[in-house]
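Quick one, tokens below:
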């Protein structure tokens, strides 16, 4: 298994100055490589690939001994690969007929990660293993940075990344060969219905509340964004306002992530088989405003629903649930959600009129009444078990 471990860094004053410099030089390298590709195609019709650009690094480093030459050659190669992935994704979107989104230059707030592709090449994950109490990571050009390692790293460290979030710095260790941690069998199965009122509703009637972290912080976020909008670009007061707004968003993200981990772990510990909807969240939260030629309808209501779905963090939760299920040896099944919310779990009658309200379900054929989310979760479970039986019979 592959798994990532994320830890807070505690740099010294000198290291706290070197880390932003490292990030800024990698951002400038990204911009130079992007401009190289743009200019080559605009002037000569030549497409520059990744294979050509790393060859220029040795000249760049030789011409800038106090800048680019300070950092790891491998980390700079990783930055060039990052640009190459952006171009490949752009061409994939063009071929698929979607909105392309050409790779663009990134402001300081949009370039926040530097990666070292191999532990030991310009970096070292456990640079002082004999230290009795504190862990350190060594980064070329920065030094031995103290790590708040709150849990044990398992497996073999493959890549190391440093990420800035507001005024904090984190190290992310991507590890291979992480051993699985199977849990004892419980014999229980469940279908889960994702929602806004409750984050998760299980087929046996259990519910996980939706904490609505973004809504709870909306007032403070609005104040921070209003304060940011009034500040002059480039000023010290604007930088402080940006930091304040970023800190609030980061706190919401951490709260959402913590809740998703706890909810997913509770499900994995309780059930051997978990069936969920195969949701297309990007399609569900697509802009409701439409276009000038075909404007959307009920835009305010749709926007509010989209915001609630994103605040609930369905995609984050399902990703975490998949990782925990794999590690614990549980079975996770995704089913097509079409019709699950309007089909009677007792008689199978499907009609729009069955869904009386957002919370109430009443079958117009047999009179069966239940909570709408529980009814949908039962249908999801049945569909998943049917898929499982078909797979076993094949």
């Amino acid at each position: 298994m592959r798994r990532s471990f994320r830890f807070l860094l505690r740099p010294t004053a000198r290291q706290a100055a070197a880390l932003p410099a490292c990030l800024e030089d990698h951002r400038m390298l990204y911009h130079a490589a992007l401009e190289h590709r743009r200019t080559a195609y605009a002037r000569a019709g030549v497409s520059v690939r990744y294979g050509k650009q790393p060859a220029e690094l040795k000249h760049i480093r030789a011409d800038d001994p106090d800048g680019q030459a300070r950092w790891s050659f491998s980390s700079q190669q990783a930055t060039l690969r990052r640009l190459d992935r952006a171009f490949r994704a752009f061409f994939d979107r063009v071929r698929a007929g979607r909105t392309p989104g050409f790779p663009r230059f990134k402001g300081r707030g949009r370039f926040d990660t530097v990666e070292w592709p191999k532990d030991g090449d310009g970096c070292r994950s456990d640079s002082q293993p004999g230290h009795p109490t504190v862990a350190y990571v060594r980064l070329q050009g920065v030094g031995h940075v103290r790590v708040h390692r709150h849990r044990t790293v398992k497996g073999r460290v493959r890549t190391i990344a440093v990420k800035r979030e507001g005024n904090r710095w984190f190290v992310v260790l991507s590890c291979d060969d992480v051993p699985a941690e199977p849990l004892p069998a419980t014999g229980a199965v469940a279908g889960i219905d994702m929602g806004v009122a409750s984050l998760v509703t299980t087929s046996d009637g259990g519910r996980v509340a939706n904490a609505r972290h973004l809504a709870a912080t909306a007032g403070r976020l609005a104040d921070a964004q209003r304060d940011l909008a009034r500040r002059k670009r480039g000023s010290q007061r604007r930088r402080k306002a940006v930091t304040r707004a970023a800190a609030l968003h980061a706190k919401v993200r951490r709260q959402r992530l913590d809740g998703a981990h706890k909810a997913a772990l509770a499900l994995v510990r309780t059930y051997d088989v978990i069936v969920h909807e195969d949701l297309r969240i990007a399609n569900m939260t697509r802009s409701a405003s439409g276009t000038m030629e075909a404007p959307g309808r009920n835009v305010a209501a749709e926007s509010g629903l989209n915001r609630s779905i994103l605040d609930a963090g369905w995609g984050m939760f399902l990703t975490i649930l998949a990782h925990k299920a794999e590690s614990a040896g549980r079975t996770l099944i995704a089913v097509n959600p079409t019709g699950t919310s309007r089909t009677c779990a007792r008689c199978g009658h499907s009609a729009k009129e069955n869904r009386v309200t957002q919370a109430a379900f009443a079958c117009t054929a047999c009179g069966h009444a239940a909570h709408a989310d529980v009814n949908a979760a039962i249908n999801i479970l049945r569909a998943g078990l049917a898929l499982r039986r078909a797979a076993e019979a094949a």
